[in-house]
Amino acid sequence: MRLDPFYLIVDSAEWIARLVPLGVKLVQLRIKDRTEAEIRADIRNAKSICSANGCQLIINDYWQLAIEEGCDFLHLGQEDLAGADLSAIREAGLKLGLSTHDGAELETALSARPDYVALGPIYATILKQMKWAPQGLERLREWKIRIAGLPLVAIGGLNVDRIDGVFAHGADSAAVVTDITLNSDPEARTRQWLKATARWRSS
Ligand SMILES: Cc1ncc(COP(=O)(O)OP(=O)(O)O)c(N)n1
Ligand SMILES: Cc1nc(C(=O)O)sc1CCOP(=O)(O)O
Ligand SMILES: [Mg+2]
Q: In what residue span(s) does the Thiamine phosphate synthase/TenI domain sit (predicted)?
């Protein structure tokens, strides 16, 4: 499986409606602190926008809703994974990406046979508090060897200037939140990301 090199992460279908039509081909809906009804509605909207734009939608955390809404790709962290029904996820035909932050988490992730592995935070992030220090670029090289052919997603503190570094160190896709969502012009920043990742898309 191949992932687009530009992996956008946003917290609403509104963001997806704004940015996916610009040419984004891989987006995660990462919603926190909203009601189940609101999340379900956003998943439906996001699914419809992504389908119309040929964009792969990945649902974060809400594996039951992803199954119920007929989604096809899920992202789970380690705690999410511990509480999830992997058989139900697989039976529903969902692909699965997993977060990792250290060697033990990588072992746990690999035993769940994921479709990609994410490593973070590569750089310090302002999105959420994390108990891990920045991994640095060299750790990506190590992970790429250890995951033996699986796609590797780099996440945490990425911006347009850091894109080439993560790909040069083995990442297959660069995931980003605040460099786009907190930018004064998110559409322009998205276009910069699309341009900066183009050479990794075609190679
Ligand atoms: C691509 C990608 N990588 C890592 C994460 C983080 O997942 P998790 O550790 O479950 O934390 P939350 O995002 O749920 O706060 C991710 N969402 N996406
Ligand atoms: C949601 C998330 N997970 C991470 C991990 O390391 O697992 S880092 C992160 C935040 C990514 O946001 P930004 O691009 O704004 O730094
Ligand atoms: Mg999670």
A: 12-180
Q: What is the pLDDT of residues 120-131, one digit of tens each?
A: 999 999 999 999
Q: Pick the closest to residue 169 from 122, 99, 115 (CA basis).
A: 122
Residues 6 or more apart whose Cβ sits within 8 Å of residue 105? 78, 99
Is pTM beyond 0.95? Reply is yes
Q: Is 99 a pocket residue for ligand 2 (Cβ < 6 Å)?
A: yes
Tokens representing 122 are 């590569």
Per residue in 13-57, pLDDT tens? Answer: 999 999 999 999 999 999 999 999 999 999 999 999 999 999 999
Domain membership flag for residue 146: yes
Task: Please give the tally of structural domains in the chain.
Answer: 1
* 155 CA distance to ligand 1 middle (Å): 9
**Which residue's CA is the closest to the ligand 1 atom numbered 4?**
99
CATH number at residue 47: 3.20.20.70
> What pLDDT was estimated at residue 202?
72
